[in-house]
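User: If only I could read backbone structure tokens as easily as an amino acid sequence. Underneath my words sits a plain record pairing an amino acid chain with its backbone structure tokens. This is the protein in question:
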Amino acid sequence: MNFHIEKIYLWFSPEHKRCITFENNKVNVIRGNSSRGKSNLFAIMDYCLMSDKPNIVEPIINECTEAYGLEFTVNDTFYAVSRMKPEAGTASQCVWVQNEPFAEDYYPSGTSNIKPSDFRRQLDIKSGLTEEYIYPWGMDKGEPNLVVSFRSFLMFNALTENIISSQYEFLNYKFFEDEYVESKDKRAYLMDVLLGIDNVEERKQKEVIATLDKAKRSTQLKISKYNKSLQKYNQCRNEVVKLLGDIDKTSGIDYSKLEGGDLLESIKDILRKYTPHQDKEIEKNANKISDLSTELYKKKMLLFNIKRAQAEYSKYMEEMSTINESLKPVEYLSQHLPKYGVTIWGQHILDELKTSLSKLCAKKIPKETASIVSDRNVENLEQEIWEYENLLKALSEVKLKPVEQSSLYVALGQLKSLLPLLTDLQTQIPANVPSDYDYANDKQIRNHANMILSEIETRRGSVVRGVFDKYIQNVYDTLSVKDNFENCKTRFNRDKERLELSDGKSILNYSNIGSQSNYMYLHICFFLGMHNFLLDNPCEQVGNFLFIDQPSVPYYENSDEDKSNDKAKLLDVFKVINTFMEERIKKGKEFQIILIEHAEESYWTGENALSTFDTRVNFDGDEALVPQEVIRKYRNENQNK
């Protein structure tokens, strides 16, 4: 991606601003003593490229500035962007973008004309990021697994002061502090994109395999579920069929041939046929028996009373005949006693007895009466009693569990308990028998996906070891001052995300190469070698631009270090950077470097003149990114407040 910066703006007020101009195909040097705000230029650039987490130093720089601006070109499109300063560490949403340079008297004011997110999206499109590559890892529950932006790749353009001599960090992803580069996996993806490894295609093929695995597991699960459901059903069904055979031995039905609804209906029929009456039926019968028993009792009592009355009447008639017979001896005595002589008292007693018996006989003479109940009625009553007794006998024959039939009723209980289970197990069997998994088709698709993945993984290793490392090695070989590492080989360790040295013979790399200046060398080699690789292997998302912040840091910060060859080492690094630029220009390829430096201009001018180096600003004396008069004005205004 063609990318170069033309101007950086700091507006201190509508009347006062700082504007620094840069050239393309140059090493634009911003030189000056420490604490002059030089390193903040990249933070300002980053802020104007729509960072949501500003890194601009608050004291002096941000507190004295009202707005920032950047003029730059992306793939032949010119942008001039201005943005109000961050407040309390929060990026401003007030952004103005235009496609022509700012006028001399321009000052950002009024209503902003674009949202930061919308401008970021414009730059994403400009850098060739389609939606497929903005969300390369797809979505999870509606949220992207990875969001990629043109900002994600800015770490490949920034060799900042805090990492330039670090032993462990070669990409300053911490500077950006955003979601694009926060995890190692995401940075690995970005490195793949830089190296030309199609990580999106790799993810697609992994998704293909994941889909196959999911389909395979799903089919196996369905088959397993079907088989288990069928097995449980058959086990229960076999128990049911055996119980049906044990209970119903006379019907001749082959229950083993029944399935589904037919079998369930047969179970219900058997239960209805053989199960003893339910409590409600028994209670109903008991009520009926009670009513019948009461009626039967009444009828039997009626019959008993009738027969008793008949018996008493017969006895009465019999007694009447006995009284008549009793008069005969009295009459005989009355007729024959005088012959034998009788006293007055004997005659008196006999007369009284005769009189009494005559009176009694006269009173007891039966009258003509009809029968109390006709014989026909008695017979009908007896018939009714017989019928009631038979009905009671029938109702009293409730099916109980006789000892000899206990096994039958145990079987009925088991059958009754198995009925709902069998019904449930039958519903659990899938309606359709699952098809077998297509292993042949799986193998064909899986082999194709694995072949692509293998090619990508092979390329990932071969590109780094066979190509990428060589570009870095070429830069390393141009260094003149290497102390004790003259014949070493550079190796980029992707897992550790850093450049390492080896003796070229062992597969092991040096874990420590000593001084900060040695690590500064490695950082310069890594970034210049990486951009030489990109010259021959273009990556649309990485701009042809590099920000280098103070290669001289190891020499100015470490007062105890041997200073004998500091200048030689620093001159060597500047020459390597100059050679890098000259070769690019010779090939007709654009590139821009912004170099922040503490060293004197004599390192790239005069007898050490370097053709591509150009000092854009020299902060000597009281000069700084924020002029002294601006600082004094700000302090005076705040004192008055």
Q: What stands out?
A: The radius of gyration is 60 Å. DSSP finds 17 helices and 14 strands in the chain. Confidence is low (pLDDT under 50) at residues 559-563. Residues 80 and 390 are 116 Å apart (CA to CA).
